[in-house]
Amino acid sequence: MIRERLPLVEAARAGNAAALAQLLHDCQPDLRRFAxxxxxxxxxxxxxxxxxxxxxxxxxxxxxxxATFARWLFRIVERECFRLFRHGGGADAGVPAAEPDAxxxxxxxxxxxxxxxxxxxxxPAVYREVLVLRDIQELTAPEVxxxxxxxxxxxxxxxxxxxxMVREQLLQSGYWLKDGEVGHG
Length: 185
Prior knowledge:
Elements: H1 2-13, H2 17-38, H3 42-59, H4 69-86, H5 110-122, H6 125-136, H7 141-148, H8 152-172
Helix pairs in contact: 1-2, 2-3, 2-4, 3-4, 5-8, 6-8, 7-8
């Protein structure tokens, strides 16, 4: 996606309306795929994509470097997904009752996906952001460190702590038994 669109991004940054329109069109499939994996519901995913496209339209000229385009755009989607999840309302807000595919891979039981999403949401922000960038966004540890302005040691420490906190919450829910077998929560 990125390399072939760099000239288009540069033209859009320079004020070329046709390049901006093409960029808005071309980015939608990638953003939708990402949003469906990141957001709790299909509706939230669509809202996040629309917000990202609106921000792209309004702020493409302010983008500092073309190389940061993809990270900037996907970060908008990610933040909006988490904002919608956090501000959705009651205990089950943002977690679909009838859409199990919205949270994770189909092989993972729905109850586990639900509890995993809740466990990640309950993490303190300093741990959650590292966990999301590393394990969900799949950035490397050095990339996470650069993104957050942290040392590599701090990223590794926070990631280890975040994973331990999530694991502990899942253990309390009964997903792993003492012998390592998976329970059914």
